[in-house]
Structures are given as C-alpha cells and as structure tokens.
Amino acid sequence: MSQTRKKVVLSGMRPTGPLHLGNYVGALRGWVRLQETHKCFFTIVPWHALSSEYQNPKVIKEYTFEVALDWLAAGLDPEKSVLFIQSEVKEHAELHLLLSMITPLPWLERVPTFKEQQQELQNKELNTYGFLGYPLLQTADIIIYKAEVVPVGEDQAFHIELAREIVRRFNRFYGDIFPEPQILLTEVPKLAGTDGRKMSKSYGNAIYLKDSPEIIKKKISPMVTDTRRKRRSDPGEPNDCPVFTLHKAFVPESKREELAAGCRTAAIGCLECKKVVIDALIEEFASFREKRSYFEKHPNIVWEIFEEGNKKAREVTQKTMAEVRQALGLVFPSSHKPTGKV
C-alpha cells in the first residue's frame, strides 16, 4: 500500500529576539503538531527582519540564535521538519527579484500592514522598497517550496491572498509552475501582556518562553485584573480580566470553569486565580527550559542543525529555480563547457 503524500507546509518567523507566550500559542505550538502530519519547512527570516532593522543589522544574528533555541526547545524536530535560515538559501532572493518584475506596484501598496506598521513603528524610516516589498519576499519564501498550506493568523491572511494572486499571474505568463498556497487560519488567542495591553515585545510587556519560574511569578503577580474587583469580596467577570487570557491558553477547561465561577461569586480572590496560571506555566515550560539551557550551552549543535536544514532547503529551491529559469527562457549556453580537445 502506498502512503498518502503529505502536503507541504511553509511558515517562518522574523528574528526579533526570544519568543513570548503569544508567539507560542499563536504559531509555535501548532507547528509542533503539524510536523506529525505534513511535510514541514520552518524558516527564520533575517531578510524580513532587515526590512525594519537595516540601521541595526548586527542584532539579527543574535536574535536568530534566540529563535532557534526556542524552536528546538519547544519541540520542532529536525528529523521531522526542515529547519533553516532563509538568508542562507540565496534562491529566495532570486525568485523575489523575478516576482518583482511581474507584480504591479498597486498590489503592494494596498497591503493593510504596510500602512499599519508605518504608523506603529514611527521611530523607524520604513518608506523603503524592502519594507513595501515584504509580502513579495514572503511569497517567494512560500512558493519556492511549492507549499500547499501556510498556517497564519488573520493579520497575515491578506499576504497569502496576495501570494495566490501573484502565483496566478506568474502561471498565466509562464505555465503552471507553482500551486496556489492555501491558508490554514490559526486561532491566535489575544494574550494580555503584563500591562493589560496585547502582549508584544515592542510594548515591553511580554512573558518569554525562557523566563524562569521566579520571573514568571514576578511578572504575573502584580498584573491588573478585572477593575470591578476593588476588594476581595467584590465579584468579577473573567472575560474582562487580562490575566484570564492566560488561563484560556494554558489552564485546562474544567479548571477554568471552576475559576470563572469562583471569580463571579467572589469565592476566590485574584491572587488565588493568578497562582493557578503561574503554576500551569511553570509546569508546562519546565522541560522547555531544560532543553533550551542545553542548546544554549552547545551553540555548535544548533548551528549544525540549521546548516543541515539549509542544505535540504537548497536542494528543493535549486530544483524549483531551474524550472523557473527554463520557463522564463533564462537558460543560456555555458562558455565553460568542455570542448573535448586535449
């Protein structure tokens, strides 16, 4: 009996530093499951980071290592998935260049995140082609592996729709080279950070996967809860409590329901409720911290894993780009072929 072919998945992360709980529940936890059922390519994307960090590029290598540590510690397995660094696979850049020749400029200008990120990161000069062309490079990252499935949150869905448009345009011009990638919408719980706003590195309110039990407790204990609970005897509403967003992501449903009932009747206090999620996080990430510590002490092992992944990725991308060059007629006679003369 022949085995059913596994669909190809591609997803990646920008190296902006160590990962936090939002990165974990929004992407990484799902990736660990996907590698059991799909042929997965997971990439750290320094060129994407460079689009906003071009004035401070030296941090990108350090951040790449931080992300690599978190991936390996969380359970991404180089025996099950191809783990690689995008900028070490130069064919991504070649395909990005070729796609830029056929992609109408208004397609990129209408991407919502272009304007949103410019507003959010006003302290950086982002009026560059690299930033505008971010979704086009992302398209190249995806289709060069002929990925059929791309797990993303709703905020990235527009980028994948754009990728599908670009694939249709490319195939119409040059023949059916690339499949249209399908969106696998991932549920991205809105985790509150330590200040009650959305958890984000840029807000300085993140709880990191690598945080020690002491730091986890220190960050969560003073968090603001439902403002209606001014006194221990005041009832509250869990759905209006920033801390309860962490419960929804990390505490079993039966325990959550018990806590929610206790909150609404003032049968339990906020400190008791916080202790439950603190304990859950400490327990869930105990083995993670142990694995991360091991890899952190053995950086050569980490880089060897990713170099092996880079080689596997190049094997795929070189084959794809040979097809692309042939389709575009960009294959020329070599002046270095042996003549047969002695």
Explain what this protein looks like in three dimensions.
This protein is 53% helix and 7% strand. Strands 1-2-3 form a three-stranded parallel β-sheet. It has a two-stranded parallel ribbon with strand order 4-5. Helix 3 (59-74) crosses helix 15 (299-328), helix 10 (213-220) runs antiparallel to helix 13 and helix 11 (244-250) runs parallel beside helix 13 (270-284). It is mainly α and 342 residues long. It folds into two domains: 8-189 and 299-328, HUPs (Rossmann fold), CATH 3.40.50.620; 201-288, Tyrosyl-Transfer RNA Synthetase, CATH 1.10.240. The longest helix has 30 residues, at 299-328. It contains 15 helices and five strands. It starts with 7 loop residues before the first strand and ends in a 14-residue tail after the last helix. Strand 1 (8-13), helix 1 and strand 2 form a beta-alpha-beta unit.
Write the layout of secondary structure elements.
Elements: E1 8-13, H1 21-34, E2 39-44, H2 46-53, H3 59-74, E3 81-85, H4 91-102, H5 105-109, H6 112-120, H7 129-132, H8 134-143, E4 149-152, H9 157-174, E5 182-185, H10 213-220, H11 244-250, H12 253-264, H13 270-284, H14 286-297, H15 299-328
Helix pairs in contact: 3-14, 3-15, 4-8, 4-15, 8-9, 10-13, 11-13
